């Protein structure tokens, strides 16, 4: 690491270099007061710089143990072990869960896009409810943050889905355990509604501010296991002239969300809109926000109409194979497609 | 919130002054830069930028509500739990009580299908006294295509609510609550929108109708990005308007025809597309909503009005609360009337298509309100 990489202001960096402090070593060896005099800053600021330099220097020197060559890293073997314990949030559609390897994965950023009316918000609400399924029922028993940029979050609908979810759980315990009564008393639709933290965002500035603030919010409200952004697109699509700035802000936001996902072991789901693009002589549908954005998310799921059925297609994922599965939106929420239910019954 | 001044956020004086000196006055200015850019621009340490931005973000970020709180608020504060009943039984049931407050509801359909008729009826309903299931408020009707006819409005009123409209002076009072604006250009429209924003709360306005959004935008802009942008700015504004004053907003959209259906495919569907290409039938033109896909994302509820073999249908094409239902309807002297309150469930993608078959036969008969008036007079 060089002096240029220290997280200090540009002018201090300039002064350091001008005064001849070209290596971290040089900074570490001098005394704070000497440094302060040389680069004309206060003693406390000089102390700060020395601390930073010492920290940066410590990272560089290999520290005994042979497993970590560079600080902050993790070996592929350790990661594999971590992944074994990673948890999934069910989508309530068995077919969709199957192609996703169990549902929406924690620690990952997943983007879901599709045409208007295909059911993006429905999936968002369903996930916000499903994340609260208690551990005894194979869920996570977590809480949800719902960031609404479009104003399409309907509490009435959440209530419907929550009631259906509790009914399903009761039925499940009826089948497998006999103590369902105890559980039924515990869960009430209001409890589910209580554990969805809803933020209504009215401009892209608020959206960025909120993402910055989430770190603190999640510290205060433990157990948040999913963040849903519905949709990430809306404000960035409306009032932006400077496309380069838009790309920068979006990628910074995506990075912050990824950091949150890793730090708190939660799932991030971003809903995206679609746009038409002129490819190979014809107009085709594609997810909005452009090509550089499409790199930002780990997984990308596209929802589309296949004939008369709704389908979900895994467009991008580092570990899942690309596949598509039918699903349907019912009054009880996201469920298996009816035709595939019929197939199963016939078999 | 986004235009809040950084000076007034309670940041340490020293850093607040640096922001001001670099002409970063509002939170929006600050948040429009990445942290690294700010570090360079302000010439301060990374830690200071991070902590300052964390503070700014916390101040700017919207308040958190739980969904439960939201539900309780709706139920407590609003008449009819935040819905404007359409008095069409089937539709009201599907929409959990009617057109919801605070969101945009779009009506799209071919010319003469009954969009304006629907709007007229809704504006009457919003102005009705609460005892008759109305909202007892004023209505702002932005009439871009000059289709608003007061005569027809009164007629619908007399036929649907005779007990009110035949009372002396009531017709005048009801009609007096509906304010019609006729902007001729987009800039004029924008101006009236800003005026509306101020008067919405003071004037007890309970419904905003824009008939039609498409005519306004298509008239002035060429197809392409300039139109998208012009539309985008207004959409955000209308959305925030609906939300903060918690009123329903109705917008109408026109249709245009499109050839082939390539633009409804993703690239990964290309294989299936090549097989479709062999089939000449897909080269038939079909109707699509005039304002494109960006617009369609922005509206919360989309009602498609269409005609299939002469029968009119109203379809719930996009709605976060309702199943995809289609209701047959007809237009009578009392406005839009459903023929069947149960509706037909449409599982497939045809819920989104817009058909116009056989309307030409019947459109002459029912399309123009003048005709209805004529039959009444003779």
UniProtKB/TrEMBL annotation, chain A:
<dbReference type="InterPro" id="IPR016467">
    <property type="entry name" value="DNA_recomb/repair_RecA-like"/>
</dbReference>
<dbReference type="GO" id="GO:0033063">
    <property type="term" value="C:Rad51B-Rad51C-Rad51D-XRCC2 complex"/>
</dbReference>
<keyword id="KW-0539">Nucleus</keyword>
<dbReference type="InterPro" id="IPR027417">
    <property type="entry name" value="P-loop_NTPase"/>
</dbReference>
<keyword id="KW-0067">ATP-binding</keyword>
<keyword id="KW-0238">DNA-binding</keyword>
<dbReference type="GO" id="GO:0140664">
    <property type="term" value="F:ATP-dependent DNA damage sensor activity"/>
</dbReference>
<feature type="domain" description="RecA family profile 1">
    <location>
        <begin position="85"/>
        <end position="274"/>
    </location>
</feature>
<dbReference type="GO" id="GO:0000707">
    <property type="term" value="P:meiotic DNA recombinase assembly"/>
</dbReference>
<keyword id="KW-0547">Nucleotide-binding</keyword>
<dbReference type="GO" id="GO:0008821">
    <property type="term" value="F:crossover junction DNA endonuclease activity"/>
</dbReference>
<dbReference type="GO" id="GO:0007131">
    <property type="term" value="P:reciprocal meiotic recombination"/>
</dbReference>
<dbReference type="InterPro" id="IPR052093">
    <property type="entry name" value="HR_Repair_Mediator"/>
</dbReference>
<keyword id="KW-0227">DNA damage</keyword>
<keyword id="KW-0234">DNA repair</keyword>
<dbReference type="GO" id="GO:0005657">
    <property type="term" value="C:replication fork"/>
</dbReference>
<comment type="function">
    <text>Involved in the homologous recombination repair (HRR) pathway of double-stranded DNA breaks arising during DNA replication or induced by DNA-damaging agents.</text>
</comment>
<dbReference type="GO" id="GO:0005524">
    <property type="term" value="F:ATP binding"/>
</dbReference>
<dbReference type="InterPro" id="IPR020588">
    <property type="entry name" value="RecA_ATP-bd"/>
</dbReference>
<protein>
    <recommendedName>
        <fullName>DNA repair protein RAD51 homolog 3</fullName>
    </recommendedName>
</protein>
<dbReference type="Pfam" id="PF08423">
    <property type="entry name" value="Rad51"/>
</dbReference>
<dbReference type="InterPro" id="IPR013632">
    <property type="entry name" value="Rad51_C"/>
</dbReference>
From TrEMBL, chain B:
<protein>
    <submittedName>
        <fullName>Uncharacterized protein</fullName>
    </submittedName>
</protein>
């Amino acid at each position: 690491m060089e002096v240029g990489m220290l997280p200090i202001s540009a002018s201090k960096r300039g002064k350091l270099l001008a005064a001849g402090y070209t290596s971290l070593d040089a900074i570490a060896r001098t005394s704070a007061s000497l440094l302060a005099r040389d680069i004309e800053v206060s003693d406390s600021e000089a102390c700060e710089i020395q601390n930073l330099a010492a920290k940066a220097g410590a990272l560089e020197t290999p520290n005994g143990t042979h497993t970590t060559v560079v600080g902050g890293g993790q070996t592929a073997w350790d990661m594999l072990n971590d992944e074994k314990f990673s948890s999934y949030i069910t989508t309530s559609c068995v077919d969709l869960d199957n192609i996703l390897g169990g549902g929406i994965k924690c620690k990952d950023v997943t983007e879901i896009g599709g045409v208007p009316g295909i059911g993006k918000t429905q999936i968002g609400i369903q996930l916000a409810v499903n994340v609260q399924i208690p551990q005894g029922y194979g869920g996570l028993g977590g809480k949800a943050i719902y960031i609404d940029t479009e104003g399409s979050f309907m509490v009435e609908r959440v209530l419907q889905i929550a009631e259906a979810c509790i009914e399903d759980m009761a039925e499940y315990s009826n089948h497998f355990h006999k103590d369902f009564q105890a559980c039924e008393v515990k869960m009430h639709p209001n409890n589910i509604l209580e554990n969805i933290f809803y933020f209504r965002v009215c401009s892209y500035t608020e959206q960025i501010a909120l993402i910055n603030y989430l770190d603190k919010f999640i510290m205060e409200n433990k157990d948040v296991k999913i963040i849903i952004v519905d949709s990430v697109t809306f404000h960035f699509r409306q009032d932006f002239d400077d496309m380069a700035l838009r790309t920068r802000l979006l990628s910074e936001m995506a990075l912050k969300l990824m950091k949150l996902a890793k730090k708190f072991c939660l799932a991030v789901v971003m809903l995206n809109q679609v746009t038409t693009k002129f490819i190979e002589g014809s107009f085709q549908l594609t997810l909005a926000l452009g090509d550089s954005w499409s790199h930002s998310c780990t997984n990308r799921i596209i929802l589309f109409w296949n004939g008369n059925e709704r389908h979900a297609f895994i467009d991008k994922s580092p570990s899942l194979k690309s596949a598509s599965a039918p699903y349907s939106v019912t009054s009880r929420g996201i469920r298996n497609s009816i035709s595939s239910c019929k197939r199963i019954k016939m078999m | 919130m986004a235009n809040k001044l950084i000076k007034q956020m309670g940041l340490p004086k020293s850093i607040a002054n640096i922001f001001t000196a670099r002409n970063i006055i509002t939170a929006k200015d600050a948040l429009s830069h990445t942290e690294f850019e700010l570090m360079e621009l302000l010439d301060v340490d990374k830690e200071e930028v991070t902590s300052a931005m964390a503070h700014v973000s916390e101040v700017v970020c919207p308040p958190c509500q739980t969904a439960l709180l939201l539900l309780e608020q709706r139920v407590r504060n609003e008449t009819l739990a935040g819905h404007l009943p359409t008095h069409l039984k089937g539709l009201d049931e599907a929409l959990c009580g009617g057109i919801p407050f605070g969101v945009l509801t779009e009506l799209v359909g071919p010319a003469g299908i009954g969009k304006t008729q629907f709007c007229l009826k809704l504006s009457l309903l919003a102005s009705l006294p609460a005892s008759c299931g109305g909202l007892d408020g004023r209505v702002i009707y932005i009439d871009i295509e000059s289709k608003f006819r007061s005569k027809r409005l009164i007629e619908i009123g007399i036929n649907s609510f005779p007990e009110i409209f035949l009372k002396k002076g009531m017709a005048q009072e009801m009609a007096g609550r509906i304010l019609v604006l006729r902007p001729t250009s987009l800039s004029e429209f924008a101006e009236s929108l800003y005026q509306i924003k101020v008067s919405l709360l003071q004037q007890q306005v309970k419904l905003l109708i824009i008939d039609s959004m498409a005519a306004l935008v298509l008239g002035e802009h060429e197809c392409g990005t300039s139109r998208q942008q012009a539309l985008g700015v207004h959409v955000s504004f209308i959305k925030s308007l609906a939300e903060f004053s918690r009123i329903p907003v109705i917008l109408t959209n026109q249709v245009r025809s499109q050839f082939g259906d390539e633009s409804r495919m993703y690239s990964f569907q290309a294989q299936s597309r090549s097989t479709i290409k062999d089939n000449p039938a897909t080269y038939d033109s079909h109707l699509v909503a005039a304002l494109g896909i960006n617009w369609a994302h922005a509206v919360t509820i989309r009602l498609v009005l269409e005609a299939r073999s002469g029968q009119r249908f109203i379809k719930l094409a996009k709605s976060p609360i309702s199943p995809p239902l289609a209701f047959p309807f007809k237009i009578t002297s009392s406005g839009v009337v459903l023929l069947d309150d149960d509706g037909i469930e449409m599982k497939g993608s045809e819920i989104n298509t817009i058909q116009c078959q056989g309307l030409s036969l019947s459109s002459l008969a029912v399309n123009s309100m003048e005709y209805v008036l004529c039959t009444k007079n003779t």
